[in-house]
């Protein structure tokens, strides 16, 4: 399986929380925008959506799709609900949710869009008091993620 491990280091991979839907990107990742528009807020249940352009996406598992506008649809896992992407109808290009990447640091944003929907408190985020998960929750050491762990799955395949 060493060939697959090498492949993973040169191509972005990712997927949903439960692992039922996985993807790998066979071309270099494109532009990454943080979208503040109202549709992205609703589709992700979040304040904004970091999305990275990706072509040559190969899926394992079939994502659900919802037509969120007259020009595009949103992909998600039918089992765990993780928002996965936005895609224009008829396009082979995806806008992947960067939080679904196994390495989210691989897609730093290069622009901000949908600013008409940007929430009033977003600009103040960087100045707020900070704490880690352990600082926030004394029982943090007892928290065990039940999410799909790509690195652990790769070890088990070896
Ligand atoms: Zn899932
Ligand atoms: Zn948007």
Can you put this structure into words, describing what you see?
The structure is a single chain. This protein has one domain (2-117, 141-152): glutathione-dependent formaldehyde- activating enzyme (gfa) (Alpha-Beta Complex), CATH 3.90.1590.10. It contains 4 helices and 10 strands; from the N terminus they run αβββαβββββββαα. It has helices at residues 2-10, 38-44, 133-136, 150-157, and strands spanning 13-15, 22-25, 32-35, 49-54, 57-60, 64-67, 72-76, 83-88, 94-97, 111-113. The strands form 2 sheets. The protein has a 7-stranded mixed beta sheet. Strand 6 and strand 7 form a beta hairpin. The longest helix has 9 residues, at 2-10. The structure holds zinc ion (2 copies). One zinc ion binds at residues 35, 37, 39-40, 49, 114.
């Amino acid at each position: 399986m060493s060939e697959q491990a090498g492949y993973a280091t040169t191509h972005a991979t990712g997927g949903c929380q439960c692992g039922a839907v996985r993807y790998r990107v066979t071309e270099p990742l494109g532009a990454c925008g943080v979208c503040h528009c109202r549709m992205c807020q609703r589709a992700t249940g979040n304040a904004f959506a970091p999305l990275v352009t990706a072509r040559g996406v190969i899926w394992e598992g079939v994502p659900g799709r919802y037509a969120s506008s007259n020009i595009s649809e949103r992909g998600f896992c039918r089992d765990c609900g993780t928002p996965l992407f936005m895609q224009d109808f008829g396009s082979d290009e995806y806008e992947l949710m960067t939080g679904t990447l196994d390495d989210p640091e691989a897609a730093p944003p290069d622009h901000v869009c949908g600013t008409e929907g940007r929430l009033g408190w977003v600009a103040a985020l960087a100045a707020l008091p900070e704490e880690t998960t352990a600082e926030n929750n004394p029982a943090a050491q007892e928290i065990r993620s039940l999410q799909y762990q790509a690195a652990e799955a790769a070890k088990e395949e070896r």
